[in-house]
Design goal:
This protein has 142 residues and is an all-alpha fold. A two-stranded antiparallel ribbon has the order 1-2. Helix 2 packs antiparallel against helix 4, helix 3 packs across helix 4 and helix 4 packs antiparallel against helix 5. The longest helix has 22 residues. The N and C termini lie far apart (37 Å).
């Protein structure tokens, strides 16, 4: 047991929490940002395919397809960028967790294994914050 404890203490000292938080920020931002990029042409012009998906596949019971397409696509760009920067991290993580829950319930109910992988880092960022290597910390917002 002493060897395991020694290894744990070494790893805890060798890997700062700021590095873990940064890795989680980058890791969780990627799938959302990449998904957002598939919905646009150029900077932020939504494609016809995006509108079709929100009309036919992503039917949300509480929001019309066109505003849902804009909101989801812009959210998939804005919140991951903020998370990468570590700016408004907790708020951005809450927004993406909300989006994950909506996707789980209304869009891809069988996607729970992937959604759990998204929820883990988001909950960490909500609970622990963005870490020392973030604009939130540099600006004393966290």
């Amino acid at each position: 047991m002493t060897a395991i404890r020694t290894l744990h203490e070494y790893l805890t000292r060798a890997v700062p929490e700021a590095a873990i938080a940064l890795l989680l920020r980058l890791g969780i931002a990627a799938p959302f940002l990449l998904s957002g990029r598939t919905k646009v042409e150029g900077a932020l012009t939504l494609t016809d395919t995006t509108f079709f998906l929100f009309q036919e596949d992503y039917r949300l019971p509480f929001l019309a397809p066109e505003p849902a397409a804009y909101l989801a696509t812009y959210a998939e760009h804005l919140f991951p960028i903020l998370i990468i920067l570590g700016l408004a991290t907790r708020l951005s993580a809450v927004a993406l967790l909300g989006m994950t829950i909506v996707i789980q319930i209304f869009v891809v109910p069988l996607g729970w294994p992937t959604h759990l992988l998204w929820a883990g880092p988001l909950i960490y960022l909500i609970a622990r914050g963005p870490g020392a290597w973030s604009l939130d910390r540099a600006l004393r917002l966290d």
